Amino acid sequence: MKSKKYAHVEESRCVACGACTNVCPRGAISVVKGCFARVDSEICVGCGLCAKSCPVGCISVLERGDAA
To answer: Could you tell me which residues come within 8 angstroms of residue 43 by beta carbon, excluding any fewer than 6 positions away?
Structure first.
């Protein structure tokens, strides 16, 4: 069963610092080609640790079913 929430990265604002990948307890976030972070929504449980650690503030936690 999936969680009710998941993290979403606004890729155009992401600086690929890796802070989110370091705090994700599920390993659901990866930095793609050194350009931006991407969340695997199938693994993400929506805990919000990544959003809190993001220095740019480009990660938000959404309800499943919400448009990203």
So the answer is: 26, 27, 28
CB distance 50 to 57 below 8 Å? no
pTM, full prediction = 0.88
DSSP states of 1-46: ---SEEEEE-TTT-----HHHHH-TT--EEEETTTEEEE-TTT---
Q: What is the pLDDT of residues 5-43, one digit of tens each?
A: 999 999 999 999 999 999 999 999 999 999 999 999 999
Q: Is 17 exposed, middle or buried (0-12, 13-18, 19+ CB in 10 A)?
A: middle
